[in-house]
Design brief:
Belongs to the small leucine-rich proteoglycan (SLRP) family. SLRP class III subfamily. The chain has 1 helix and 11 strands; from the N terminus they run αβββββββββββ. The protein is mostly beta strands. The chain has a single domain, classed as Leucine-rich repeat, LRR (right-handed beta-alpha superhelix), CATH 3.80.10.10.
Length: 233
């Protein structure tokens, strides 16, 4: 590693996970490109998340070889708004890796090997976990219910056999193409107790490539501005 002091094998004790890591004098901005609050570490053959400057707002580490996200990787990153880990080799994410980030709005973890979506803060506006291995037990119950700013939820090409309800009224776009969803309840999107309820924001629902017949639940779409895209036969 070019003789960087304090590197792996130094014999130093592991820091207490409750203590804020020392991010001074880091070589990350020599390896990656740091522009203002954005850190770009794309296509650098990284196998872990490098230590980030405390002022980082946007972190990009696409097309690397990262296999795991630890809860210490983003600890105390209080200004971080966007994390993009597209096309790595991630198989697991610690449950608390993102939950303590007060400003996080966008998480892109598409094209990995993730089977479990971790807990996420209520500040989320965009979640893209498409092209993973997320299945029946891969999403927490009511995971998105309190995300009142969530606009885009992309879970295309996973192994889901259900629509992860309840979904916040803020949601504009829901992509669930090419999963294993076979049925939908008539109150999945609408409120059957209130026929005046209109879900104006949700204009983009993709269910094509699932073994579901949308024509079996015609009452499920009465509150929507557009019928979902999928099989009506």
């Amino acid at each position: 590693t070019g003789g960087v002091e304090g590197s792996v094998g130094s014999g130093l004790p592991e820091p207490d996970e409750t203590e804020e890591p020392d991010r001074r004098g880091m070589p990350t901005c020599l390896l990656c490109t740091c522009l203002g609050g954005s850190v770009y570490c794309d296509d650098l053959k990284l196998d872990h998340v490098p230590p980030l400057p405390k002022e980082t707002t946007h972190f990009y580490a696409r097309y690397n070889r990262i296999t795991k996200i630890n809860k210490s990787d983003f600890a105390f990153m209080n200004k971080l708004k966007r994390i993009d880990l597209t096309a790595n080799e991630i198989t697991s994410i610690d449950e608390k890796a993102f939950i303590g980030l007060p400003e996080l709005e966008e998480l892109v973890i598409r094209e990995n090997h993730i089977s479990q979506l971790p807990a996420l803060p209520e500040t989320m506006a965009l979640i893209d976990a498409s092209h993973n291995n997320i299945g029946t037990k891969g999403i927490h119950k009511e995971a998105f219910k309190d995300m009142t700013s969530l606009l885009y939820l992309y879970l295309t090409d996973n192994n889901l056999d259900y629509i992860p309800v309840p979904l916040p009224d803020s949601l504009r776009s829901l992509h669930l193409q090419r999963n294993n969803i076979q049925m939908m309840h008539e109150d999945t999107f609408c409120n059957l107790k209130d026929f005046n309820y209109i879900r104006n924001a949700l204009e983009d629902i993709r269910l094509d490539g699932n073994p579901i017949n949308l024509s079996r639940t015609p009452q499920a779409y009465i509150c929507l501005p557009r019928i979902p895209i999928g099989d009506l036969i």
